[in-house]
Amino acid sequence: MKPLFEFLDVKYLDVLDLPDLRIDEGRITALVGASGSGKTTVLRMLNKMISPTSGRILFQGRDLAQEDSVTHRRNVVMLSQTPALFGLTVRDNLLAGLRFQDREEPDEQSLTQILEQVRLAKPLQEAADKLSGGERQRLALGRVLLMKPRVYLLDEPSSALDEETAQLIFEMLTSHARADGSTIVMVTHSKAAARNHADVIIEMSGGTCLNKGCSL
Ligand SMILES: Nc1ncnc2c1ncn2[C@@H]1O[C@H](COP(=O)(O)OP(=O)(O)OP(=O)(O)O)[C@@H](O)[C@H]1O
């Protein structure tokens, strides 16, 4: 397995202490652990929203500190726990992630297919602020899928979903990632989801990783 991210003696304030954490390319990694154990902070580091206060993170063998943040975030896209709405309609929200990408606007059919993929049965012209929490979560996931990133950082992507929809979404995400070789790092409170869908489970506690050596 090729390492995509490698943490070398990384510390972040008194929040994280990760001597040796590795995330492999093309795999599905689940970050599990109690509330406040540092899971979201790890995702934010992978996305370069925050940087280590000491130590280094390598991305594809290069120091992440040297990478351009905007370019990095085109490849490594984070879906937060409470995604924001963009613009007025479902369509506006799907297209929002492509604004800064040099790509042709997807046609109606592609947008409708994405909605089917995320199990959101709403018309493209529907007002986004009318959607429920779980529907917004799936809409935001659709926005991220359209961006076709190499790495998906998903912060509790199923927190607002019922069990059946969550299961369908995890299945869609994993088959999508396996088909195009993308990498997923997802935070989840569901140990069952982690066991059923992830290749690697990283267990966090008190800002560190409990796995032996943290290099799986
Ligand atoms: N910039 C910061 N300064 C100080 N403390 C911080 C900072 N960022 C995060 N923390 C603290 O670090 C701890 C870990 O936060 P984090 O959001 O990573 O936890 P989590 O495991 O994702 O929790 P949850 O499952 O509840 O979302 C928390 O106690 C949080 O308050």
From TrEMBL:
Q: Which PROSITE patterns match?
A: ABC_TRANSPORTER_1 (PS00211), ABC_TRANSPORTER_2 (PS50893)
GO molecular function terms attached to this record: ATP binding; ATP hydrolysis activity
In terms of superkingdom, the source organism counts as: Bacteria
Pfam families referenced in this protein's UniProt entry, alphabetically: ABC_tran
Tell me which residues make up the ABC transporter domain: 1-216
Instruction: List keywords of the entry alphabetically.
Output: ATP-binding, Nucleotide-binding, Transport
- Protein name as annotated: Putative ABC transport system ATP-binding protein
Q: Per the UniProt entry, what species is this protein from, by scientific name?
A: Desulfonatronum thiosulfatophilum
Q: What is the lineage of its organism?
A: Bacteria, Pseudomonadati, Thermodesulfobacteriota, Desulfovibrionia, Desulfovibrionales
